[in-house]
């Protein structure tokens, strides 16, 4: 899709139509696309793969339009439709685009391309034949490229500086100290700085997370079963950003995007070639970062709610199995600046009951029945949340809910994650009656009648391990149904690596979206074994999570809320303007000390110290005695 620029508009041209976006009023108009010769001072600035939508915050941020600069094909999820992953974006506003777009082959000129500094990828173009001076038109974009190169160089240095745990925790301690000394309640009004922060955060969210996917001719916001039955927009991530375009009633300009994960693996068993795919869709409701979004809201939506669908495609057959994860649907939080602050209940039982019932009314309306798998500890800090969850399930008293508790840390103590198999065996009857969705070229053969809803505290690391095990058990039964494996057999050797890679990558991406780092216990999901090197990575990721949650997530949460059309708190706006608010000195310093202990334990183990102190090992779900033995 070509993009033209005038003094007042950005114009998107697709075949015989054009979409005009007013750079001042942010209004959209659809016009004919073939007659642009009468438009004064027009220039082609490049091409885009599609429009993500607008972002604005009244009185704080002027409207900006986000478009896709680069995208790469991932594979075929639902045959024959190709899915793409967004690699980078460009942001349009009243001023020049914030990055140079890929050149348009019809309108690029040799002169304009020569103005690009050597060593900078991409390109630019001007509209040939519209009377533009190529050299003068290219000049501002040339400067923009130089600016982008400087930003990339600076960001590379930041990433390098943050590559070790020591540097991460030092930064956390330094920022904590500076915030303690800052003025409490300062109101910052700096729209220029806020705009820059939002633009930077948008590029981090889209360019660096590998989290956003779309298909040009297929709805991937719904799973395979819903595509043939009902539709819902929970996973239509950019729906709010596209609302003005949707009102034009022309689907040619509407591009639904999901946040989550998509990967497709080519597999072979004997003479049969097929694909195994995994797609995760993150809900746009109560979306955000780990410590900024916990529990449930008044409308029954939960934090970190993700639907994950495993899809096997063999010739004309497509088989899918869906699971969900989501924060425990009660009002709870973890305030404070400690390394792992204790959870607390935020509202009384009656208020919580209303939200709890709304949540499961929505779940049952979508999935018919739900089997809850609660993995939180049944003692210690997590007990208060787990007990409240169980009490509300009992009070709801629904015959369509099955409640299962499995204290993951207790059963898998000492890194014995293989003990999850006892849970999977106990759930075998439930999985059998649940079934899966199966269709061929003639339509639906059978449907999934229920869903597993898995949770731990963060719905990340423990949840990843259990969902992977469930996916494996169901896949084994599906292979038998398709005649690719004999009854009661284990996962074929040829499928073990692609299966584990899919689920490990999925766990990492979902974790980065919510907590800012790869998943813990990822080495087990990826290889089936728990190793010392994996524990080291978990230690690094734990400290990084602490740093990100306490000193970076405020910016990200504010940006996410703007994208989704949610209200943005004064604290978040102040943070974007440069004043993140004061931190309790005791909490901040205690959090930094926890992180320091974690680094020291990792250092001693790497140096081969025989007497490893307990230190902060408990913070990363590891058993120090078993570590010393290994």
Write structural notes for this entry:
There is one protein chain. The protein is α+β, with helices and mostly antiparallel strands and 630 residues long. Helices cover 39% and strands 21% of the residues. It contains 18 helices and 20 strands. It has helices at residues 110-114, 134-161, 165-181, 191-207, 224-227, 243-246, 349-367, 383-396, 408-411, 420-434, 461-481, 493-515, 522-527, 532-551, 553-564, 570-576, 585-606, 624-629, and strands spanning 2-5, 9-14, 17-22, 28-32, 43-47, 50-57, 61-76, 82-92, 212-214, 258-269, 272-282, 306-314, 317-325, 332-333, 344-345, 370-374, 401-405, 437-440, 443-446, 451-455. Strands 6, 7, 8, 9, 10, 11, 12, 13, 16, 17, 18, 19 and 20 form a 13-stranded mixed β-sheet that branches. A 5-stranded antiparallel β-sheet has the order 4-3-2-1-5, with no helix packed on it. Helix 3 (165-181) packs parallel to helix 14, helix 11 (461-481) runs antiparallel to helix 12 (493-515) and helix 15 (553-564) crosses helix 16 (570-576). The protein is globular. It starts with a strand and ends with a helix.
